[in-house]
């Protein structure tokens, strides 16, 4: 018999989140816990201290993903999986990623509290390098796990200091023997929304039915570097001036394909980089997103066409390279139904939505049944030290996760 | 009796320039000889080997300026000085700075060839850190020499690696006992134009009558960093989008105050700097120039007003700090006359002009009589590895310098 009235412990979940947030805490109240650093290691050690207390075993795979297992009655059944990531952006918040991991921990703790044994084993997973800010691309761990990236390719990726992923994994002892490609029953991931929709509409739960398509680019703009003093304005080929008009156009491209499109330039570098030299070369990153891959492809061709016009106007040249493509990814109807059911059962107001952000769940969904649970975050702000969420919403999402995991695991 | 028909040795001058250009030579035919590096030291060693052969003594001052002295008949007379700098931009050319130093060397060599003794002593000076690309601000050596910068202030300036000017001066043994503020009869500096005017008009010599005023700024733009995926376009406060519109406006400010105004953004940095984070903070450098200080001040107030409007439109904020101001600086009429006379005597087509670039001569002109001699450079391109000039023009500028120095020193 299912104990239908089991409640997760909201206070314990919140306290664990706050304790984890002390690791890499920033002055502005956020977190800087970059992937595969000593701080990221400390985060895992804290988590493992908690899961050891629950009697769970753990194991890494070859790309540093960490799997923490709570046995089920039936050893033959593939595990019901939940989790997220513990790494953060350079100026990240206390909830992005870590919430999904600690909500999963709270599910395990609650099951232990009530001596519930599930039919299927449960696995709490910490995906390595979800953020991609130290080692690009993001979602590296789940990408390798699901066969989207080659392990050897991931190993040789370098951070800005020239350190390779493989070196850091060796240093931290994160290379384990868990094989890739094992059967997984399904995967649930709880996450803050990282956008303003739930808050604006007064909903507690986002029942996430899929992930947005993403196309990321690297844009190089070439002009001619020259001395900033004696080079008359009309004769210049200023790559930064050209790039700045391109950045404006890229923003309009997002607006014009709204309300669901996004287009963002997050990084820019100028060469040669001197106060009194007209820039000869500019490098810019472009991130475009839309729930419909066809729209995204049309945006790319508009982008290329507009870049050409702007470059010509400034007598510059450009190239636009596809850096990373993630197609729009629908989630699993049965898993989505369990999330919806969990929200309804607890009486939380909910809405179905598409995830604008990339998540490990999106890669998992290419191979396994997946659903996600969103909770509101204050002002929709994420990837920011002031990222915030209420204890009530945090608990609500975890309660829905508990229902979904419990129902699925039997 | 003056030997009026003495000619400098054009081939020797060119060969010395090409030999110096091997120190820090880049693949693209330019030079990277950043100030106070081992390469900069090697450049000085080569020069001193040449001036030692002429029997000249040398001495540094406390900021690493190098003075090489050819005695005159009258020890009491202050020296007639000429020179420039040996440091380069990160992707610099073979002529910027080094030409003025080696043209001065060729003047000394020519005087030695013909056993000419001048009444006043001559000094060939190598100003330290003219470029300002490793340690900002530029023209640091001549600025300290002329009392515009404090020595202690210059000592503590750091490069991007955190190395201080003082550390490098100590390491290289460039701190000498030559006092600042000694009497100087006058200072001549030969330089490539670094702009396209002489070439366009078919002139060989620029008789430079003064330096442009410069006002440099640092612009900070503050928006709100947020996740690039789930943050709808209309709700963003994108600091890079805002800055890109400001960069466009700054360019228009230069164009609108043409033909003599320049406005350039040479460096930009984005924080937090991640492909999938909307930039929350952008830092940009702004370099404005005009021969008339009143126009330059009016440009600054237009700049501030326009920045405010653009920031408001993007719901961002900004601050604009004055980073460096160099007023418009007229040169000395007598010295200018000697340069003009030298060009006329040799039959070189010439025009009077204002220097668009900053030069050590501009700082020297605040305290001593100064003039400059420009020669054309190919396509007006400088601060670039493809910087080029003809051997004929290089020789012509040196011949005019010889006349001016010789006439002045008596």
Detailed description of the structure:
The structure is a homodimer of 410-residue chains. By secondary structure, chain A is of the alpha+beta class. Chain A folds into two domains: 285 residues, Aminopeptidase (3-Layer(aba) Sandwich); 113 residues, Alpha-Beta Plaits, CATH 3.30.70. Helix content of chain A is 35%, strand content 22%. Chain A is built from twelve helices and 16 strands. In chain A, the strands form three sheets. In chain A, strands 1, 2, 3, 4, 5, 6, 14, 15 and 16 form a nine-stranded mixed sheet that branches. In chain A, strands 7, 9, 10, 12 and 13 form a five-stranded antiparallel sheet that branches. A two-stranded antiparallel sheet of chain A has the order 8-11. In chain A, helix 1 packs across helix 12. Chains A and B meet through strand 8, helix 8, strand 9, strand 10 and strand 11 of A and strand 8, helix 8, strand 9, strand 10 and strand 11 of B.
Question: Descriptors for this entry?
Answer:
homodimer, 410 residues, alpha+beta, Aminopeptidase, Alpha-Beta Plaits, 2 domains, 9-stranded mixed β-sheet, 5-stranded antiparallel β-sheet, 12 helices, 35% helix
> Could you spell the SSE succession of chain A in H and E letters?
HHEEEHEHHHEHEEEHEEEEHEEHEHEH
CATH superfamily heading of the largest domain in chain A: Zn peptidases
**CATH T-level topology of the largest domain in chain A:** Aminopeptidase
* Helical segment count of chain A: 12
Most extensive contact: A-B, 72 and 73 residues
Q: Mean of residue pLDDT of chain A?
A: 95
Q: Give the low-pLDDT segments of chain A.
A: none
Biggest sheet statistics of chain A: 9 strands, mixed
Assembly category: homodimer
The second-level CATH architecture of the largest domain in chain A is: 3-Layer(aba) Sandwich
Provide the gyration radius of chain A in Å: 23 Å
Strand content of chain A: 15-25%
Query: Can you tell me the overall shape of chain A?
Result: globular
> Structural class of the helices, strands and pairings of chain A?
alpha+beta
The total of beta strands of chain A comes to 16
- Mind telling me the CATH class of the largest domain in chain A? Alpha Beta
- Percent helix range of chain A: 25-40%
Q: State the end-to-end distance of chain A.
A: 10 Å
Q: How many individual domains of chain A?
A: 2
